[in-house]
């Protein structure tokens, strides 16, 4: 059994829940809520009663931050202001009881292709957010990156671009590869063939026709 913390991407609320299959449960809920997949915390508990105790304790300790959303699973949300405190509580429990953490990955059997959706959304938000932070228009960014304006528009709206253009825009934004820890899924041409590559491995596109669909 597991207890999990799942914050929303807009940093307004986070969910505290329990499940015997948290990857599936969170993926199901992600159809209704925009979770930040990089900040989800999953604690593996020793028993079902233990998970109930931990979840109820967290709910009780953070009851002043409790919030409710209309919809599936909407009764276990809390103000994001308490998220870091909740993480500290869970980490203390993990150390005290020698439990383990589980990394969140999308359960593709629940929502095929949803992993790509998460990364595309991440690409869009990072590129747009950094451009605005630097005070650049889409036209100015395109000129700085030596790409077409429609390339910037597409990155911000769909999270997709050719591999070479993607790196050009990252460089122009001063991001390099630092925001893309982990792997990306590369869709090659029209074949829908996918493979994982390590970000920064510029030579790993022998077809020279890749399109970035997602940074983690």
Please give a structural write-up:
With 216 residues, the protein is α+β, with helices and mostly antiparallel strands. The chain has two domains: 2-102; 114-215, lambda repressor-like DNA-binding domains (434 Repressor (Amino-terminal Domain), Orthogonal Bundle). It has helices spanning 22-29, 48-61, 83-97, 114-133, 138-145, 149-158, 163-172; strands at residues 2-7, 13-19, 41-44, 66-67, 77-79, 100-102, 161-162, 183-188, 193-198, 210-215. The protein has a six-stranded antiparallel β-sheet with strand order 4-5-2-1-3-6. Helix 4 (114-133) crosses helix 6 and helix 5 crosses helix 6. The two termini are 26 Å apart.
CATH architecture of the largest domain: Orthogonal Bundle
Query: Biggest sheet, in brief?
Result: 6 strands, antiparallel
CATH class of the largest domain: Mainly Alpha
Mean of pLDDT: 75
Q: Which structural category fits the helices and strands?
A: alpha+beta
Low-confidence stretches: 178-216
What is the CATH fold-level name of the largest domain? 434 Repressor (Amino-terminal Domain)
> Given the C-alpha coordinates, what overall shape results?
elongated
Under CATH, the homologous superfamily of the largest domain reads lambda repressor-like DNA-binding domains
Helix content: 25-40%
Task: Encode the helix/strand succession as letters.
Answer: EEHEHEEHEHHHEHEEE
Tally of DSSP β-strands? 10
How much β-strand is present in the residues? 15-25%
């Amino acid at each position: 059994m597991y207890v999990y913390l799942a914050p929303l991407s807009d940093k307004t609320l986070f969910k505290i829940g329990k499940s015997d299959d948290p990857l599936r449960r969170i993926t199901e809920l992600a159809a209704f809520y925009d979770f930040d997949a990089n900040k989800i915390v999953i604690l593996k508990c020793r028993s079902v009663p233990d998970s109930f105790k931990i979840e109820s304790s967290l709910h009780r300790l953070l009851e002043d931050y409790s919030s409710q959303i209309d919809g599936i699973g909407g009764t276990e949300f809390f103000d994001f202001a308490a998220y870091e405190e909740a993480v500290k509580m869970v980490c203390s429990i993990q150390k005290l009881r020698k439990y383990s953490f589980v990394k969140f990955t999308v359960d593709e059997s629940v929502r095929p292709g949803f992993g790509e959706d998460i990364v595309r959304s991440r690409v869009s938000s990072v590129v747009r957010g950094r451009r605005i932070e630097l005070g650049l228009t889409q036209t100015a960014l395109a000129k700085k990156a030596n790409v077409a304006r429609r390339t910037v528009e597409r990155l911000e709206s769909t999270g997709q671009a050719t591999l070479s253009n993607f790196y050009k825009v990252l460089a122009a934004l001063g991001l390099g590869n630092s925001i893309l820890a982990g792997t990306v899924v590369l869709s090659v041409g029209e074949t829908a063939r996918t493979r994982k590559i390590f970000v920064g491995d510029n030579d790993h596109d022998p077809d020279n026709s890749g399109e970035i669909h997602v940074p983690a």
